[in-house]
Amino acid sequence: MPVTPALYVRQEAAESSPEDSSLRCLLCPHSCLLQNGKSGICGVRKNEHGDMSLPFYGHISAAAADPVEKKPLYHFFPGRNIFSAGFYGCNLRCPFCQNYHISQQFPGEGQETPPEELVEAALRENSIGIAYTYSEPLIHFEYLLHSAQEARRRGLKNVLVSNGYLNEAPATRLLPLLDAANIDLKSFSNDFYHNELGGSLEPVLRFLELAATRTHLEVTTLIIPGKNDSPIEMERIATFLADLNPDIPLHLSCYRPMYRYTIRGSTYQNLAPLLDTARRKLRYVYPGNVPGETNTLCPSCGELLIRRQGYRVSLHALKNGSCAKCGLHIAGVWE
Ligand code: SF4
User: Fold this and answer.
1) What pLDDT, in 10s, does the model give residues 179-237?
2) Fewer CB atoms inside 10 Å of the end CB: C or N, the chain?
3) Are 184 and 192 in contact (CB under 8 A)?
4) In this structure, are residues 223 and 253 in contact, taking their beta carbons and an 8 Å threshold?
5) CATH second-level architecture of 59-290?
C-alpha cells in the first residue's frame, strides 16, 4: 500500500539533525512524545527517523457481516447487517477488555486491506455500510478517514464503535463522515478512568457532546459489580446524556470476567435498578447481554415498536419513524 502521511503530529526540537526529532502525537488526549524508534501508548503510531509512521495502516484483524444490533445500535436500520472491521491496538488499558487479544496484544499483522477493498467487501456482503469496531478504530484515524470517504462515495453508511478517546480537532473532522456511533461511557468517575483504564473522563464527555449533534449516537456502559454500578453513578451518567438529548439510547450491558478482571459477572438483577434509574432521565434504555426480549416501546403510549430476541428483529408499530398508534416521532435512523 502507498505510504500514508500521519495527521495531527507536531515535530519537537531536534537534538542535532531532523532525524533525531521527537514527535508529539496530537490525535488523542495522551499527547505521546515519541523519540526516534518509539511507538505511542496505542502501539500503532511510531517515530521513524523524525517521521510518524503508521505500521498498521490497513491491517485488519477481523472482518464479518454482523447484525447492526450487535454493535449495539438499536435505533439505526433495525434488522440489517453491517460489514464490521477490526484493527489492532488501543489507547486505553481496560483490564476487562472483551477483545484484549487484538486490542492489548498484537498476535499477527492482519490482512492488509486498502480502504477501497474494504468498501468492495462491504458491497459484496450487501450490507448497509461499514462498522469500524472490535478493537479501537480511532487510533487508525487516517485509515478511517479514507475508508469513510470512499464508503460515502459508494453509497454506504459509516458506523463507529469506540471508546471516544480522541481530541477535539480530529473528532470534528471525522464525525461528519459518520452516520452512527456507539460510544462507551465506561464510568462517570475520573478516578476509574485514570486508575483502571489509563485515561481520563473529560475527553470522553467532550467527544459525546460533539457526537450528539453531528451523528446518530448511542452509548454503552458495561456494568461491572462494585466498580461502576452505584445508583449515584448511574444517575450522573443518565443526567449527563439527558442534558445532551434524552432521546440518546443507552445500553447497560452485563459484564463477563475477561482479561485481567476476575470479578464475578453481572446479571439482569444487577442491571434492573440501574435501568430504572436511567429511565427516569432517558427515553430509551436497554439491557445488554441478557437472555429474553429487548424491545423498543413508544415512550408516550407504550405501544410495541420493535421486538428483539437475540438478533431476531421484527418491526411492529413503527411506521415512517413514528409510532403508528400515537404518532410520536421516534428518534433514530430508519429505512
Ligand atoms: S493516538 Fe497513540 S500515539 Fe497518539 S497520543 Fe494517542 S496513544 Fe499516543
Assistant:
1) 999 999 999 999 999 999 999 999 999 999 999 999 999 999 999 999 999 999 999 99
2) C
3) no
4) yes
5) Alpha-Beta Barrel (3.20)
> Closest Cα to residue 199, out of 162, 155, 231?
162
CA neighbor of 214 nearest in space, from 268, 160, 265, 176: 176
* Residue closest to 92 by CA, chosen among 135, 142, 144, 46: 135
Task: In the chain, list all ranges with CATH 3.20.20.70.
Answer: 59-290
Q: Spell out the residues 6+ positions from residue 153 whose beta carbon is closer than 8 angstroms to its own.
A: none
Report residue 20's pLDDT band, with 50, 70 and 90 as the boundaries: confident
The CA-based angle 100-121-65, given to 5 degrees, is: 50
Distance 26 CA to ligand 1 centre (A): 7
pTM over 0.90: yes
Ligand 1 mean position to 308 CA, how many Å? 38
Among 12, 27, 46, say which to mutate for ligand 1: greatest number of ligand atoms within 8 Å of CB: 27
pLDDT in tens, 85-113: 999 999 999 999 999 988 888 766 777 99
Q: How far are the Cα atoms of 80, 193, 206 from residue 220, in angstroms, in the given order? A: 20, 15, 16
Mean pLDDT of the 35-58 span = 95
